[in-house]
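Bit of a strange request maybe. I'm writing a small parser for structure token strings and I need a real example to test against, not something I typed by hand. Could someone generate the tokens for this chain?
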Amino acid sequence: MKRTLILIFAALILMIASFVWFVATWDAAAEDPISMTQPIHIGATT
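Reply from user aminoacidic:
Good idea to test on real output. This should exercise your parser:
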């Protein structure tokens, strides 16, 4: 039982650490956007 809990906590720590590393090393300028969202223009037309 104790070994199972240790393995679960170790897996959680590994996942959290990898996520923190991913966020800390993210460079948005070097990545292409995933989607091409176009803004919706609502207003009076002239």
